C-alpha cells in the first residue's frame, strides 16, 4: 500500500530507493548506517516527545483552531507596526511563490539576477527616500538596524570622541531596549536624553534620532546634526520611510546614517515580524556598511550584471575581526517592500502617506474642536492625546468598538493612522472620547519640513502599475533565478530542503498575519498557544529545558546564547571569564557573535581528519583556564563528520569552568537520534530556516531560536516592552521575533511527528553518503568518520585537480549551471573544495543527475589536465553559457554549442542563465549600488 503520510511526501527517496542507496554505501539498513556514523556516546534513546503525526488536512485544521483564538482588531497602536495592504499581485506572485521563497542567498550571482534586481530596487528605494546615496540589501528589523548604526558610528567617528552613544528620548522603546542589550558587552555608554533641548553629551561618538518620534512628533533636527558633527560624532536617524515621502529626507538635513523598518510597505504585522530593516549611509561610509550590498557589475560579454558587492565584509571571512554578526538578511520581506514601491510608484506612495497623515490630522482637529488636548501639534500619523482620568475608559470603549489604541502613559493615549484607516475607525475613536468627527483638518506637517525633492525617479517605479505589467515583471525576475522549484540546491551547511505548501499557506491567514505584537493578550491567545507549543517541542527534540524564539536570525541566536552564558557567569561573580574558544572550522558568525558578546576569540586547531585537535584544545584551556567563558562547536562538525570526541570536549570545558555552546546549524543530522542538551551542551541556537523548513527566501527571513539548559533559563532574551527587563535584554525588537513565520516549523513538526523527523535525519545522512560513495573515485572526499562515512554533507577536494589542470572550484560551480544545478558551497570550510549537502527531500533521480553532472565535469577537467584543451579555452572557464552565446551567429570556441549549453544529462528542462560569468573585482572597483540610469542598459 502506498504511504501517503506527510513524511513520505517530504522525504524524497522511497524505501526501494533507500535500499539501492544503502547497497552503494555498503550498509545493510538505515539503523546500521546511523550506528556506523554516529558515536554511541551521544545517542539518545528516549524519543522526541512530539505528538503523533497527522495529515496535512488535520494539521491545518488544528492550526486553524489556534488561529480562531486570535481576534484581529483595527489596530491604531503604531509604535513601529502598522496596518498595510499587501497587493494581491505581490502576495500571489512573490510571498506565495516558490520561485521566490525557495531561492538561496545570491552567492551564485549568475543564477540570482531576478532577486538581485529586486534587492537593487529595494536599495534604490531606501536611498531615494532617505536622501542618502548608498543603502544595503536589508537588515533584520529597525531595532537591530539601529544597533548596527551604533556600531558603525563607533567605527567611523573621529578618534577623539569617547564611548558615549547618545539616544534621543523619542526613540522607539523597543529600539532603546535592543541598544541597551548590545551596548553593555562592548563598553558603550548609552545616554538617553532630550536632544531637542539638551546638548549632545561630551564624548559622544554618535547620536540616534527618531523621525517622527515615538510620541508622534516631527522635529527639525538640523541644529542637533550640526552640533554633533562639530564634536566629531556620527548622526543616525531612525526614519519612517512612508513618512519620508512627505518629510524632508534625513540626508538633506545632514544625517550620516538612516535606519528603520519597511514593514508598512506591504508586509503584514505578523505579531512582530519578519519585516525588512534598512540602512542607508553617506558615501564615505559605504565600505563599512554591515550586511549585504547589491552592486552593479558586468559579465563576460560586458553586459550589466548584478552581484553582492564587497563580500570581504561578510562575517564568514572577517570572523573574529568582524564588527557585525549580520548573516541572514530579510530578503523576501525586502523584495515585497521593493515590489510594493514598484507597484505604487512615487505618486502612489505619497498618496498612501497623505491618507495616513490626513486621517491623523482630521482626528486631531476633531478632538481639539471638542476640547480634548492634543499634545503635539506637528505630527505625521500619530496623535498623542491627554485623556487624564478617562484613559482606561477611552481605551476600553474603543476596544469594544473594535479598535485598539495605545496607552502612551497613565494619562495619555497614542492613536496611529495608516494605509488601512477608515472613516469608520475615526468615528469609533471619536465616539470613545465622546466627541464628533468633523471634516478634514489642517495638515500637521510643518511647512519647513515638507519634502520638495523628488524620489523613485528610476523608470522601474513608473512602468509596472497595471496588474498585467506587474505580473509579467515579477515573472520575468523569477524566471531569471534558480530555486528549489527548478532543481537541487546541494549547498553544504545550508540545508536547502523542501518548504511544503501546507507549511507555507498559514502565514497568509489574516488571523495570524494581521495581529499587532502589542495587542492585548486576550486578542492573541492563538499566537501564544502556538508559540508555547513550538518552544516546548523544540526544547524537547534538542534535550534542553527551554527555548526562546525571539532571535530573528541564526546569528542573533548565537549572540543570545553567548549573552546567556556571560550573564550567568557574571551572576556567579565570574566576571573575568571572557575567552571563547572556537575551532578553526567554525562558521564565521560564531567568532563575530562572540566579539559582539564582549568575548575574546581564541582559535582551536583542527587535526588532519577535520576534528578538534584535543592537544591544542588542552593547551588553550590551560592557557586561559581562569578566563575561559565558553567553547562554540558545530556538531556534526563543519567538516561534515560526527566527531567521536564531542563528549570529551564538553567535559574538558566544564571541568575548566566554561560553558558549551553547540551551533545548531547541522541539527538536521541529529534530530531523533541525538540531543545536544543531553550529550554535554549548555546552549544552542536552532536554524528554523534550515532544519525546520522555514524557506531561505533568497537569504531570509530566518528564525534562530536559542535553546538552553535549566541553569541558563533565567538568562534568555527578555521582552523589549517589559518595564523591568531581565538579566539579558532583547536581541530583536519583538518579543517573539519573526513570529509571523512560526506556523511553518509548527506544521512541519505536527505533520512529521517523532518517527517522521527521525526518518528524515537518516534519509539526509544516507543521501550525503550516497553522493560521497558515487563521487569518491572522481573527487577525493576530504573528511570521513568511522567506516569511511560522512554525516549529512561531504567535502569534495579539488585542490590536486586544480594544481594539475588550473580548473578552479569557481569553474566547476559555474559549469554546473550549464548542467542545470546550483553549485555546492565553494571553498568553505576549506579553500579549494566543494561542500555538498543533498538533504532528505531530493529523490534518487535528482541525486543521480547531480552525480552524473559532477562525473561529466570531472571528464572535462581531465581533458584540460591532459592538454586536449587549454583551461582558458575550455567550457569550464567560459561557463556559464547564456542563450545569447549559444545562439550567436559566430562560433569559434574549442567545443561545440551542444557541449556548451546542452551537456549530458540536461534533458528538456533547460535553465538559461541570464548573464555570463560576472566580474566581481570590476564591480567592487566601480561600486554602484542603486538602479543605474536606464541608458546604461542600452550601452
TrEMBL record:
Highest taxon of source: Bacteria
Modified-residue entries (N6-(pyridoxal phosphate)lysine), positions: 690
E.C. code: 1.4.4.2
Residue intervals of the Glycine dehydrogenase C-terminal domain: 760-881
Cofactor(s) the protein needs: pyridoxal 5'-phosphate
Pfam families reported for this sequence: GcvP2_C, GDC-P
Domain Glycine cleavage system P-protein N-terminal as annotated: residue spans: 9-432, 614-717
Group of enzyme by EC: oxidoreductase
Described purpose of this protein according to its UniProt entry: The glycine cleavage system catalyzes the degradation of glycine. The P protein binds the alpha-amino group of glycine through its pyridoxal phosphate cofactor; CO(2) is released and the remaining methylamine moiety is then transferred to the lipoamide cofactor of the H protein.
Family membership noted in the UniProt record: Belongs to the GcvP family.
Reactions it catalyzes: N(6)-[(R)-lipoyl]-L-lysyl-[glycine-cleavage complex H protein] + glycine + H(+) = N(6)-[(R)-S(8)-aminomethyldihydrolipoyl]-L-lysyl-[glycine-cleavage complex H protein] + CO2
Keyword Oxidoreductase: yes
Oligomer status and interactors: The glycine cleavage system is composed of four proteins: P, T, L and H.
Gene3D superfamilies: Aspartate Aminotransferase, domain 1 (3.90.1150.10), Type I PLP-dependent aspartate aminotransferase-like (Major domain) (3.40.640.10)
The protein's name in its UniProt record: Glycine dehydrogenase (decarboxylating)
One GO MF term attached to the UniProt entry: glycine dehydrogenase (decarboxylating) activity
Keyword terms, alphabetized: Oxidoreductase, Pyridoxal phosphate
Amino acid at each position: 500500500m502506498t504511504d501517503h503520510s506527510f513524511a513520505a511526501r517530504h522525504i524524497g527517496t522511497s524505501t526501494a530507493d533507500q535500499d539501492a542507496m544503502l547497497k552503494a554505501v555498503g550498509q545493510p539498513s538505515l539503523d546500521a548506517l546511523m550506528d556506523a556514523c554516529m558515536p554511541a556516546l551521544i545517542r539518545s534513546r528516549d524519543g522526541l516527545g512530539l505528538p503523533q503525526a497527522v495529515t496535512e488536512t488535520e494539521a491545518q485544521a488544528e492550526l486553524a483552531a489556534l488561529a480562531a483564538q486570535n481576534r484581529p482588531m483595527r489596530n491604531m497602536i503604531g509604535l513601529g507596526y502598522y496596518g498595510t495592504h499587501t497587493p494581491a499581485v505581490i502576495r500571489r506572485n512573490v510571498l506565495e511563490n516558490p520561485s521566490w521563497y525557495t531561492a538561496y542567498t545570491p552567492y551564485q550571482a549568475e543564477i540570482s539576477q531576478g532577486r538581485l534586481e529586486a534587492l537593487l530596487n529595494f536599495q534604490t528605494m531606501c536611498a531615494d527616500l532617505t536622501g542618502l546615496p548608498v543603502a544595503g540589501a536589508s537588515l533584520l528589523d529597525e531595532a537591530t538596524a539601529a544597533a548596527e548604526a551604533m556600531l558603525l558610528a563607533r567605527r567611523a567617528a573621529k578618534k577623539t570622541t569617547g564611548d558615549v552613544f547618545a539616544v534621543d528620548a523619542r526613540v522607539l522603546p523597543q529600539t532603546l531596549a535592543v541598544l541597551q542589550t548590545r551596548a553593555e558587552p562592548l563598553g558603550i555608554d548609552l545616554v538617553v536624553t532630550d536632544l531637542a533641548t539638551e546638548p549632545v553629551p561630551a564624548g559622544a561618538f554618535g547620536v540616534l534620532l527618531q523621525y517622527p518620534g515615538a510620541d508622534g512628533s516631527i522635529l527639525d533636527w538640523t541644529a542637533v546634526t550640526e552640533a554633533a558633527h562639530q564634536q566629531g560624532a556620527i548622526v543616525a536617524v531612525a526614519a519612517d520611510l512612508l513618512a519620508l515621502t512627505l518629510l524632508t529626507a534625513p540626508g538633506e538635513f545632514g544625517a550620516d546614517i538612516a535606519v528603520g523598518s519597511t514593514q508598512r510597505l506591504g508586509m503584514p504585522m505578523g505579531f512582530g515580524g519578519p519585516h525588512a530593516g534598512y540602512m542607508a549611509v553617506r558615501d564615505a561610509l559605504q565600505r563599512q556598511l554591515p550586511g549585504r550590498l547589491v552592486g552593479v557589475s558586468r559579465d563576460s560579454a560586458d553586459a550589466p550584471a548584478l552581484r553582492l558587492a564587497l563580500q570581504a565584509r561578510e562575517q564568514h571571512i572577517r570572523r573574529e575581526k568582524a564588527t557585525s554578526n549580520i548573516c541572514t538578511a530579510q530578503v523576501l520581506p525586502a523584495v515585497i517592500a521593493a515590489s510594493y514601491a514598484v507597484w505604487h510608484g512615487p505618486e502612489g506612495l505619497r498618496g498612501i502617506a497623505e491618507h495616513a497623515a490626513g486621517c491623523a490630522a482630521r482626528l486631531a482637529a476633531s478632538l481639539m474642536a471638542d476640547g480634548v488636548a492634543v499634545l503635539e501639534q506637528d505630527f505625521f500619523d500619530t496623535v498623542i492625546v491627554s485623556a487624564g482620568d478617562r484613559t482606561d475608559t477611552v481605551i476600553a470603549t474603543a476596544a469594544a468598538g473594535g479598535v485598539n489604541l495605545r496607552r502612551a502613559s497613565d494619562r495619555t493615549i497614542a492613536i496611529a493612522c495608516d494605509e488601512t484607516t477608515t472613516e469608520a475607525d475615526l468615528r469609533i475613536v471619536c465616539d470613545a472620547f465622546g466627541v464628533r468627527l468633523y471634516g478634514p483638518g489642517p495638515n500637521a506637517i510643518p511647512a519647513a519640513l515638507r519634502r520638495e525633492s523628488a524620489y523613485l525617479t528610476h523608470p522601474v517605479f513608473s512602468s509596472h502599475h497595471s496588474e498585467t505589467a506587474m505580473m509579467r515583471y515579477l515573472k520575468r525576475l523569477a524566471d531569471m533565478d534558480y530555486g528549489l522549484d527548478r532543481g537541487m540546491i546541494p549547498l553544504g551547511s545550508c540545508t536547502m530542503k523542501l518548504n511544503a505548501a501546507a507549511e507555507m499557506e498559514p502565514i497568509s491567514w489574516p488571523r495570524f498575519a494581521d495581529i499587532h505584537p502589542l495587542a492585548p493578550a486576550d486578542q492573541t491567545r492563538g499566537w501564544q498557544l502556538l508559540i508555547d507549543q513550538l518552544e516546548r517541542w523544540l526544547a524537547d527534540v534538542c534535550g534542553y529545558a527551554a527555548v526562546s524564539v525571539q532571535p530573528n536570525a541564526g546569528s542573533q541566536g548565537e549572540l543570545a546564547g553567548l549573552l546567556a552564558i556571560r550573564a550567568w557567569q557574571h551572576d556567579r561573580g565570574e566576571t573575568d571569564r571572557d575567552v571563547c574558544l572556537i575551532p578553526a572550522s567554525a562558521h564565521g558568525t560564531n567568532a563575530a557573535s562572540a566579539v559582539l558578546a564582549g568575548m575574546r576569540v581564541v582559535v582551536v586547531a583542527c587535526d588532519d581528519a577535520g576534528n578538534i585537535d584535543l592537544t591544542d584544545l588542552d593547551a588553550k584551556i590551560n592557557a586561559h583556564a581562569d578566563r575561559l567563558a565558553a567553547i562554540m562547536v558545530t556538531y556534526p562538525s563543519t567538516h561534515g563528520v560526527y566527531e567521536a570526541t564531542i563528549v570529551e570536549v564538553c567535559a574538558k570545558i566544564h571541568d575548566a569552568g566554561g560553558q558549551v555552546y553547540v551551533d545548531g546549524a547541522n541539527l538536521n543530522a541529529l534530530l531523533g537520534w541525538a540531543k545536544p542538551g543531553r550529550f554535554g551542551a549548555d546552549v544552542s541556537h536552532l536554524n528554523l530556516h534550515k532544519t525546520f523548513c522555514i524557506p531561505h527566501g533568497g537569504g531570509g527571513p530566518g528564525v534562530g531560536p536559542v535553546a538552553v539548559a535549566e541553569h541558563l533559563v533565567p538568562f534568555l532574551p527578555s521582552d523589549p516592552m517589559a518595564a523591568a527587563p531581565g538579566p539579558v535584554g532583547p536581541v530583536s525588537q519583538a518579543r517573539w521575533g519573526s513570529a509571523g513565520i512560526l506556523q511553518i516549523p509548527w506544521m512541519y513538526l505536527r505533520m512529521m511527528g517523532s518517527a517522521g523527523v527521525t526518518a528524515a535525519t537518516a534519509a539526509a545522512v544516507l543521501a550525503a553518503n550516497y553522493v560521497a560513495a558515487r563521487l569518491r573515485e572522481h573527487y577525493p572526499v576530504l573528511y570521513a568518520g568511522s567506516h569511511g562515512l560522512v554525516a549529512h554533507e561531504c567535502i569534495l577536494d579539488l585542490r590536486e585537480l586544480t594544481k594539475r589542470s588550473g580548473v578552479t572550484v569557481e569553474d566547476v560551480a559555474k559549469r554546473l549551471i550549464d548542467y542545470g544545478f546550483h553549485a555546492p558551497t565553494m571553498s568553505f570550510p576549506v579553500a579549494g573544495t566543494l561542500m555538498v549537502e543533498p538533504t532528505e527531500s531530493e529523490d534518487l533521480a535528482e541525486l543521480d543527475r547531480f552525480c552524473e553532472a559532477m562525473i561529466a565535469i570531472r571528464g572535462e577537467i581531465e581533458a584540460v589536465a591532459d592538454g586536449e584543451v587549454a583551461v582558458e579555452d575550455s567550457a569550464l572557464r567560459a561557463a556559464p553559457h547564456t542563450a545569447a552565446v549559444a545562439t550567436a551567429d559566430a562560433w569559434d570556441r574549442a567545443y561545440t554549442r551542444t557541449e556548451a549549453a546542452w551537456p549530458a544529462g540536461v534533458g528538456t528542462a533547460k535553465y538559461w542563465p541570464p548573464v555570463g560569468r560576472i566580474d566581481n573585482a570590476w564591480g567592487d572597483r566601480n561600486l554602484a549600488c542603486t538602479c543605474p540610469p536606464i541608458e546604461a542598459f542600452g550601452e
